[in-house]
Amino acid sequence: MTSVDFSTMSKVNQSSIYPLIDTHTHFDAPVFDDDRAVLIQKAYENGVQHLVLVGYLHRHFGRMYKIRQRYSKQSNNKAHFKVPSLPSVEQDVNQEEANTNIYVALGLHPFYIEQHSDAHLEDMAKIIANNRPIAIGEIGLDTFTAAMKVPEVFAKQERFFKTQLDIAVVHQLPVMLHIRKAHAEALAILKAHDYDAHKLGGIAHSFSGGVQEAIAFVKLGFKLGVTGQITNPNAKKLRLAIQAAVKEYGIECLVIETDCPDMIPVMCRTTPEDSSVLGQDIEQKDSMAPVHNRNVPSNLPWVLNSLSELLEVSSDVLAEQLWYNSCAALQTTWNYPK
């Protein structure tokens, strides 16, 4: 990594704040429990108008709805938010003042496949029927470790991926893909499946493939999710892939995300290395990790700024287009604040 002065680069220029949508977060994680309300306000001050809580384990679905109820702007207009399929969720919670809208996506993450059961799939379908989420995710395939490549394990990943695509088709919802070191296999499944991203939307979250994979996912109708990885000048494969996709399809093929608490932009790190917990064991992911090791939604403008520099597109033009891209990917019609 090139030498970076981390002590002077973590403050966003307040004179150039643009409306943004954080399309992928794990902002319900316990690492945010002590200061979540403060961080939501800070995110809003840095332009984040909407953010999505994305699921990965069945046992946390109730937590996600609870966070949405307590902290989301649109929930503050409702006296009650009923969650009949989630008896563990507190039905009445003290709602915090909020300016940012929060949404829930439900999915069973491939990296934690051994913790998923068929009963979880069945219950997820019931929850979706009773409390429609904004999307299904994050779902997909992951062969990052040797254990994930074991034929029986990978076969279960494929089965759960296809079943969750089926659920998305039934409920006409977009999907958020988690694909890591399994792009060819995922593309084969998507090409053969009834799920049509051109009609339903969808995001290839935290895209990590090469040029050909980037073009292939966009051709299928998915937007490429760009994280804080784009701020790293050494992420040459990613940067080339994003440039190639934009050359082929324009900036209309991108959305941005923090994936917090992971994917910390280089200028926001307190150490030269990204202390990511996503993709490690679940105990680490759910632990109260040190605050200085986490990414936060208010860091999203750094992704915008780095993408603007990479693509040589002004931040104001890019921010507005990313807004509309996110709405298309999530099948929403949020008005762009003027």
Account of the 3D structure:
By secondary structure, the chain is α/β, with parallel strands linked by helices. It has a single domain (16-330), classed as TIM Barrel. 38% of the residues lie in helices and 12% in strands. The protein has twelve helices and eight strands. The protein has helices spanning 36-45, 61-71, 118-130, 146-149, 151-171, 183-192, 197-200, 211-219, 236-249, 282-285, 300-311, 315-330; strands spanning 20-25, 48-54, 101-106, 135-142, 175-180, 203-204, 223-226, 254-256. Helix 3 (118-130) runs parallel beside helix 5 and helix 8 (211-219) runs parallel beside helix 9 (236-249). The termini are far apart.
Record keyword descriptors for this entry.
338 residues, alpha/beta, TIM Barrel, 8-stranded parallel β-sheet
Query: How far is the first residue's CA from the last residue's CA?
Result: 38 Å
Give the number of domains.
1
Number of helices: 12
**What's the CATH topology label?**
TIM Barrel
* Biggest sheet strand line-up: 1-2-3-4-5-6-7-8
Using only CA atoms, what is the Rg?
19 Å
Largest sheet: 8 strands, parallel
Mind telling me the CATH superfamily name?
Metal-dependent hydrolases
Q: Compute the number of strand runs.
A: 8
Give the CATH class. Alpha Beta
From N to C, what is the helix and strand string? EHEHEHEHHEHHEHEHEHHH
Sheet-strand content, in percent, reads: 5-15%
Structural class: alpha/beta
Give the proportion of residues in helices.
Answer: 25-40%
CATH architecture descriptor: Alpha-Beta Barrel
* Stretches with pLDDT under 50, minimum 5 residues: 1-10, 76-94, 278-284
Mean pLDDT: 88
Please tell me what the overall shape is: globular
